[in-house]
Amino acid sequence: MNGGADAISVKGLVKKFGNFTAVDHVSFNVKEGEVFGLLGPNGAGKTTTISILSTIISLTSGSASIFGHDVSRAKDEVRKMIGIVFQDPSLDDELTGRENLDLHARFYGVKGEQKKRAIADVLKLVELDAAADKQVRSYSGGMKRRLEIARGFIHHPHLLFLDEPTIGLDPQTRRKIWEYIKMLNQKEKLTIIITTHYMEEADELCDRIAIIDHGKIIALDTPEKLKDSLGGDIIRIGTNEPTRLVALLKKGKLGATVKEYGGNTVEITAKDGSKLLPRVISLAAKSKIPMEYSTIKRPTLEDVFISMTGKAIRDEEGDGISARMKFMGGRR
Amino acid sequence: MATTIDTIYALWLREIKRYLKSKSRVIGSGGQPLIWLAIFGVGLGSVFVVANGTSYITFMAPGIIGMTLLFSSIFAGVNVIWDKQFGFLKEILVAPVSRVGIVIGKIAGSATLALMNASVILVVVTVFGIIPLSSLSVVGVIEAYIFMALISFVFVSIGLLIASSINNVEGFQVIVNFLIMPLFFLSGAIFPIGSTAPIWMQGLADIDPLKYGVDGMRAALIGIGSGSLWLDMAVMIAVAVAFLLIADWSFKRMQAK
Question: pTM for the complete prediction?
């Protein structure tokens, strides 16, 4: 983060499809150099938001600008500044990887020697040099994704949109893609906006996260602060005398929130859980309250989402994956 | 920033590369028209009598070139639907390129392929003497190519126009198949629609752009046109411009899903 001008400025953005409001008065700013995440379940309005920001669909009301260029009035200016990796594949799979990149470079006015060099550079970056001259239809899902990321970056955009960049990929490939994203942000100083419904992905990559549900932003902060907002670590203790244990701990003035969690479990929320746990154990031992087990965990963004919405992020795979399956099936 | 010319060239190049990679398309595209020519040309040749001593199969040859252009041009619209389904259209629509460049690039690519197919037929009918070499002139061949280019331009535009508002291949094929037979049979490609035909049929033939294209080609290649070559050309240019404008409008309106 270098605290420069705003790469994205969104004010009161609304998008309706008929009676359905997909994006409902959303406002946020993304600073230059930042990795900004839109986190939420499928259907929350993430893809709609970045489709508007990337000029693919029109907005209903409100305003949005990319480096000061309005997305509905200065479409070509915006298009020049951005690169985008769509949720669903958008490659010409009859062409080779290199031909796809070549075509993209032409669309963005990258020519001659500069074009050759840019294509060679991005191919090396995503380690596809060896497969560059094979037809894209022979690529694996991970290779296609890497090619799309390379393509999104070939014209050196100021802002890169990544819509669910690792959906449907295996864990190793996902790690690899996370590395590329971090590298692009750090080495190339690229501002990145990423949508995801994977908590750990948002946590791993983003400087700041907007949690979005039913078209509304319900929280916006750094991952650390979002998690801290829950009050700290969560300790759970199994005991057959939960009521006595809660009473005891409340008397002990531990500086923590203590409550019965149900199912013979006591839940303690505290800032420094790992230091607190031994004190809890010795207090219980002195009063001869039997303990069966104890767990301690840092809250995750999932916990943040649950505490804000009262439900878990629906982790079923959405349209993205079904379209991908269909896509692969159709090729056999 | 890519200029409109860069955009047109990039999209043209894409069509050509895709075509050359698919060998079955290269070989298969010339087959059907030649079968038509062989079966109808020979079969109906004994029934039809064409004025001033021209044999029926010679009369029919420019029509078969027109047929080749009609089929390969209008079905090229299916590529737009594939691009929608495979997502590539989004890659095109999000690029900072002029929309009219996209439309002309698509038309140029598909029209080039249609012209290549038609050229194969032209060479074959000349080699087999169906269009006698003696009736060909340099000017005539150039004129014929202008008509061939106009025919493919018009029908690629129509194909794009249909494809821009339809999202699945089956729907596209139903509509195109519905259109293609009347367009073909009313054009005079395999039998002339003369003054003895019913008025309604003459009326329909008059609004069939292919009629003017085939008539122009026939005048240019074998010297028997029913109308004026320049009138034919004027009509074709006007229709081509009109469909380009409509296709451009429909692409501007189109938003990616």
Answer: 0.81
